[in-house]
Every structure is written in C-alpha cells, then in structure tokens.
Amino acid sequence: MSALIIRPPSLTGGRRRDDDVTRLLPRPLLVTVIVALLLVVLGPVAYMVLASLNSDIGVAAGEIWPREWHPSNYLHVWSTVALGRGLANSLIICGAVAVVCALVSVSAAYVLVRYAFRGRLTVLRGLLGLQSIPGTLMLLPVFVLFASASTLLGIPTIGTRWAVFLTYLTFALPFSTWVMVTYVRGLPRELEEAARIDGASSWRVLTRIIVPLSWPGIVVSAIFAFLLGWNDVLFASVMTNPETRTAAVALQVFGATQETGALPLYGQMMAASLICAVPVVVLYLVFQRYLVGGLTAGGVK
Amino acid sequence: MKARNAMGALAGIAVVGLALAGCSGSDSPASSSSPAGSATAAKIDGTGKTVHVMIAANGLYPEQQKTWFGEVSDKFKAETGATVEFETFASANDELTKIQTSVLSGQGPDVYSLGTTFTPTAYATGAFMTLGDAEWAQVGGRDKFVPSTLGISGPDEKNEIAVPFASRPFVMAYNKDLLAAAGITDLPTTWDELTDDAKKLTTGDVHGLAIGYADGFDPWKFIWGMSIQAGNPILNLEDGKAQIDVDPTQTAYQTYFDWYSKDKVVDPAALGWKNAQAVAAFADGKAGFVPMVSATSRVTLDKSAVAGKYAYALMPTVPPGMTTNPGDGKPATSIISGDNMVVAKYSKNQDLALALINMLTSTENQTSYNKTFGDLPTNQEAATAIQTGDELLKPVLESSAGAIGTPFSGAWGDTQLALTNVVVQALPALQAGGVSESDLKAALQTAQSTAQASLDKAK
Amino acid sequence: MLAPSGFLMFFVILVPLALAFYISVIDLDQYTIQHWLKAPFVGLQNYVEAINDTSLLHAVRLSVSQALLVSLITMPIGIAAALATQNAFRGRAVVRSVFLVPYILPAFVVATVWRTMMHPQGLLDHVVGSVGIDVGLWLNGPTSFWSLVLVQSWSSWPFYYLLVLAGLQSVDKEVHEASALDGALWWTKLRYVVLPYLRGSILLALVISFLHNVNAFTLPYVLFGVPAPHDVEVLPVLTYVTSFQSFRFGLSAAMAVVSLALVVVPLFLYLRAVRLDSGEDRVRR
Predict the structure, then answer these.
(1) Is the Cα torsion angle B301, B303, B304, B310 positive or negative in sign?
(2) Could you give the ipTM of this predicted complex?
(3) In chain A, which among 100-159 make CB contacts under 8 A with chain C?
(4) Which class in CATH covers the domain with range B3-168+336-402?
C-alpha cells in the first residue's frame, strides 16, 4: 500500500491557509458572481414556487403573487401522477445507470489514455460522433431492436427497467468516457510509474491509483449519466409501462396540450417539478464534497 | 479477431430478428386470430386473458380515472373472465409514437382510444381492424350511437375502423352579466352579429372576445368552421383538390385577424395566448364571449369568478359577411370532437376487445362516464336522457348533433398544420397593425401547396 | 476493458443507426408503415426533397447559430460559477446545489415557466418596460430567436459549471502555491496557470454543449409550440413535425441524417484543430 501513496514534495515549507493560496477570484468579484448567478437562477425558480401555490386560473392569467393560496397542490400531485412510484423508478434506473456508467467509463478512459493502440483516435472521435445523433432518429429503431430481441430470445424487454437501463447506459457512455478521458489525461504519470516498478498489475493501478485520484471526474460523469436518464421522456415514454414509468414521463401528463377548453393543472405541474428536483439536489449536496480536494488529497486517502 | 467474428454473427442475428419482427407485424390480419363476428350474443370466455387498452390520461380527473379503470376491469372480469389493463398517454404525439412502435414491432395494446381528428391517420396506417356488419353487431350495432358521432369513423360506411366513445363538441361560453349590461338580449347566430356584439361589450379592460391566437389548434378550427359554413370543406376529396387559397377561406382569416387589428374586440395580449389563457381571461370576468371551448371548461369556470354567471351557446353557424348559409354551405356547429376506439389488427384478443368496447358504450356506462368526466355520451339513449336533465349542457348536445367531421384523409394532419401556420406566421404583422391582403394571399398560397402536396400523396 | 461499452454501443446505437439510415432511403409514411419492410425503396429522393422542398437548410442555419451562441454565452458564466465556488465559504454546498437547479428542471417546465413570463404584458415585459424598453412579441417574430437563446442559456449553463468544477480539481496545489510565491495577480494566475489546466474540460464542454443545443427539442417545442414561428423553426422541431404531424418518417430520417452530416464534419475538423482527441498538447508540455 504505502508504496503507492507518494505525496509529491511540497514546495513551501509552512502550512498556509488553503483558502488564501488556492483562491482564484478576488473577493469582490467572487461575491458579485455568486450573487448575480443566484439572482438569475432563483428569479424564475421563485416564480415557480409562487405558481406552485397558486390556482390554475391565477397562473393562466399571469398572476405573480397569488390572490388565492393553494398549498394543497403539493398534496394532490402525489395521486394525480403516481409521483411516488415514478420517483422510485427514476431513482433506481438512473442510480444504476450512474454507478455502472461511471465504473465502465473510468476503465475505458484509462485504456484509451494509457495504452497506445491502433484505432484509438477513431474510437475517441467515434464516441463524439455518437453523441451527435439526434434522439428522435433513434427512437423507432431502438424500440424495434428491443422488441425483436424479446421475440427472438423469449425474454421480456419492452416495459422492463432493464431495457430502459441499458438504453440510458449506452447513450450516457460516450460522453462519460470523454469526461473521464479528459480527466485521466491530466493525472500525473509518476504515481503509476512508481506502482509499475513495484510490479502492480494494470487492474491494481486502475483501482488503487486512477480511481481514487479521479473522484471529481467520476462524480461529474455519474451526475451527467444520472441526469440524462432523469430528464429523458422520449425513450421512457415508449419503453416503460405504468409499473416502470419514470418521474419525467409521469410529469409529462401536465405538459400535454389540453385541447378541451379546460385549464392545465399549472399549480400541480410546478409543484411536481419542484418535488422532482429535490432528490437530485439532495444527492448533489451529498456528493459534492467529492468535488473538493484535488490530487494530493486523493492520493493521501 | 475472434471478437470481431462474434460481433458479425450477432449483427446477423439482430438483422434476422428485425426482419422476423417486421414479418409477424405485417402478416397477421384479423382473420388469423378469430372467426370474427360469428357470435354476437354468445358469451366470450376470456379467462386468463388480458386486454390492453391505451387511453388518454385525464389531466382534470386523474383520481376518478384511476377508479374508473378499476371498475371497468372488475366489471369486464365478471362478464368475460378477462382482465383489462389500461395504459395512459399524455398527448396525441405520445400516442402516435406508441402506435408507430407497436405497428412496426407487431406488439402492443389491443385497443386504442384516439382523438377524432387523428382517426384518418390511424386509418391510413391500415393497422386497425375494419368493422364489418358482424363487428358492428359485436359492439351493439351502429344504431346504438348518436348519428353525428359516427361521422369520422371511416372514409365511408363500408370502411369504418372507429367506434365513437366520447363526444366533446365545441361551443362558446358567454358572460350573462356582461351581455345584460351591454343590452344584448339575443345570442348571435352569425359571425357578423358576434363581432357586433363583441364591439358593444368592449369597454376598459373588458373585451368582447377571448381568443387564443397562439394556440396550436384553435386557429384551424375557426377557419375550417367558417369555411365549411360557406361551402368550402378545405379538402375536396372527390376531386383530390385542396381549396385553401379561395375567397371564403380568405374571408375567414380576415375576420379572425380583424377582431384583433380592426374591430379591437380582443385583449392586445391575446396574441400570446393559448386556449387556456383565453379561458382564464373569461373566467376572470374580462371577456364577454369565449368561443371554441368544450363542456370540460365547466370544471374551470365553476371554480372561478364567473361561476353561476355564465352559460354555453352554439357558435355562429352563418359564415362572415353573410346572413344565411349559401346553397352548398353547411351550418356546422363544431368539428366532430371527442374520442374513438379502434382495435389493432395485430391483437390476438379481437373478440374480447370488441366485447369491451360494447360494454364501455352501453347506456349505463356512458351515463356514468358523463357524470364523472363531463364528456358527452355517444350512446343515443344516454344522450337523450341527459338532454332532458341538464339545462347548461343543452347547447353542447345540440352542438354534438350539428357537428361535422373534418375531411377523412391522411392529408388532414398536414392540412390543419398548414392552416394554423398561416396564423402563426402572421402574428408579428398583426401586432404591427394588421395583415395586408397581399401577404395573406401569399400565405394562403403556401398553405395551399402544402396541403395539395400532402393530398397528392394520400392513398 | 473496452469490450462491454463497445458491445452495448454496437447494439443500442450502431445497429439502430443503420436501421435509421435504411429508413431514410425508403418511402416510409403513414400509408406504408404497417408493411414497412415492403415500403418502396426511393434511393436519395428523400434527401433531394429535404434539401429542395423543405425549410431544412434554414432550420440547420438557425439551429447551428443558436447552438453556437448559447455555447459561447454560457461558457464564461459556467467558468465563473465554478471558479467562484472553488473555495470553501459558509453555505457553499447550498450555493453549489442551487446552481444545478436550472439543469435539473424538466425542459418542458422550464419552457412553460418562461413562456408565461414572456407573454405579452407578462412579467418580462414589466421588467424591461420599467427601464423603458418595448421588445414587442417575445415568442414570435425576430425577437423570438433571442428569446430561445436566452432560455436555452439559462437552462444549460450549469453544464460548463460542472465540467469545469471537476477540471479545477486536477490543478496541483503546488501550482497554486508556486504562483502565490511569485506574487502573481489573480488574473495572471488564472490566465497563465489555471486555465491551461482547464483547457481539455472547456473544449470538451464546448463540443458537447453545442451538440446538446443543436439537438434540443423539448424546450423550443414547448416555448413556441407547433407550427413554430419561422424565426425559431429549429431542426429538431422540423424533423419532429415532419415525423409526427406530416407522418413522413422516411423524409424525417433523411433530414436527421443530413443534419448529422452537417454537424459531424465541422465537429471533426474542430477536434483536429484543437487536438482534443489526441491530447497532444498535454504530452508536449
């Protein structure tokens, strides 16, 4: 173990406060940026919060401050769209996608960065090429593929969480791999080389050095993989059934055009969207501490 | 290298698989699954089977809809032993995707509930069962239904695919207090009268009409309605000709635009409104009339500032600029609007599916469906019963009886889009003061060629 | 170690993509879909029609300029946000999470909210009206293009923020310390010391953000509705309408393929120019 943990010698003798050394923006600018962005983000969000407490007529009429308060929107929404089950499905599917995607992409990236083999560039470019395929082009073919797999192999696909999981995982992989490639490239080779001299296998290098050093990259690519599934309605709307429906698809009901002369349930729609944002924000709150520290901290652990 | 060979083999399998799925999807006509229609009265034994139904999610009564799903399933189980499983879709587009994917792969729901204007497209796919005499008998016979609701079940009586399930015709709502204050005693029956009344009603921040100019559907309904009332069905299916760049239709557009720019009887903000905002303005007591609403608007209006102060009326049936319908003009009260049910050709439970539709369109079920969801019955007996019971709904039922179907052609989707597009692209000019006649003519020509091209492709 | 990803991508992306190419050369529409394997082969006819008879090129131009603008506008915002939340302060965890919110909200909700705010005489009109500006219609006419850019930027800037935040962690602490010893100004340090570390992340974010915006469908669809005003009839909306309102699946697939080609070629030129794919600059340094 100890051989693998080499802390680069520090250039400075004394311990200065991290804050001073690593600060990137002068304080006034930092405060300005944060306050301005908070305003820009929270303005529309505040409007959403108010709308989620308003009556549907009030929202449709363009009221900002509700004349009547309808906190009951937050109660009704659970039965209107089976939000509970939707959230559970989304969390299961997207959570699995995030974890698997991060693991697969970090190892793929390691191979792509550290091993010179023919076709390496083609693979990298191809991955970005895949990223540029519009989803609407792929919807029908992907569905047909899964449907024929089910006819052919006699296993249920359409309507299962597995099918959705595999679809999201595949679409998340190219991008996540690229994120990891950029990240792993930036890692110093010294630690690895030292480990190699000690006779460590590739696998050991990957699990003991690359992964611990790459936490920020892994967390970010997991977040992207998670959000890809979380926000998708295109594939989920045809590949799920009522049992396996994700929250985004359940919410879609609110977005449906009401052709009938009655008002959409604006209040509940806003309430539902805010409720659905909460799990992601909480997850991020938990994981964002892995976005701190950087190289040396990673090496010490 | 080994890996590459394996990949190749797998790819081969996948392609074969696709081909197989395609074949099974295309080669399973109605006849293969059952001797259709042999038994009208004979009890169908569906024990252990499941009928899958695809139906629009009801955004207004989600909980009631869930209860209703349960009730239907229980009842059907008692009758046939089969279970019913409902699946909901959020919008027509979702449903189309579902139909597409199901048709391509040959697996999916047995029964679909379709919006009426979408029925011609569903027909064009050829993926749904044609209803012959035997099949109609299985759902209780054509006579069971309100005649006008059958108007968009197929291109002609021999080739129908759709059973009417719910009717949602359009009417206009008016504010009784505002009309009385303006001294309007008789409801307008021509579009010109409506415009005149609207002028009388417009004072301060109250406007005569509430119109959703930015709606994705409303504009074409106005234009189609005014056109057919003047004798122009927009698509002349007999001659295979689109008729958009013609006088009656141009007048319709002009009337629709003039409300905003010349008569000034609508709120200036209406250029950004969808139907929902127009209804909200009316609900707020800020408009005398709101045309193009259905009976479901009751849910909104009864909770609003105009509760108890509004009523429904037929929209005018005499085209703009005229006092009576011309010879070939039809006094259409509305498009035929609502939901139809169709059975998929690939379904392996067609007899059960028809039995289910028969049950859903029974007098008893239609009456209770109307009570719960507000949609009008397509079942004649149930409709007659309501007519005598509910004063507010009377005009809506009248509208249902006087409704006319949009042209039954696969080209209609494109045509309605082209009609709406004329309005969408004209909005900036409308805001700047008005749409000039030459611009309008040019726009109509574009719409004309789009619709004609689509009609030429129709089979 | 590449095998599992390769396998998945082959089956879930490449095989369907081949099928999509096939669809683009047959006359698949509402009339032929049921017997789609027998749909007539029309060669390049769909492509010819897409380019000659539809507003495809206009749509591509709109989509590309919109995507480029949004990607360039959100870049400095995302970088600034990442730099500002790099160092610990009280409540940083919360601020970091709040910054993520626009990116998590479903696109149709973002679009609905902004649509309401952009209504004539709506919230936005009041805000800009208070400083004496009359924009006219936000959601139709020439302004609508900028409305699209504005809303798209609002909802997508956290993307840069996340990627740059991760990139910042790969900056060695010794580098910070060294530049502190040099007494470098914050701007000099940022420009010559920190940004080079972020180069890979930022260039990657630019590409992905561009692709993401080119293909964004739900936001313009809900914001402007269908049929879309001419100034915002972006590519995904056009292909969608062709597919789901006109039911010309073959034509729509051809449009998507054309757009794919139009996007992929410049993309590869870009990759080569910035050496993002080979990572050469990193090796030389």
Answers:
(1) positive
(2) 0.86
(3) 104-105, 107-108, 110-113, 121, 123-125, 128-138, 140-142, 144-145
(4) alpha beta
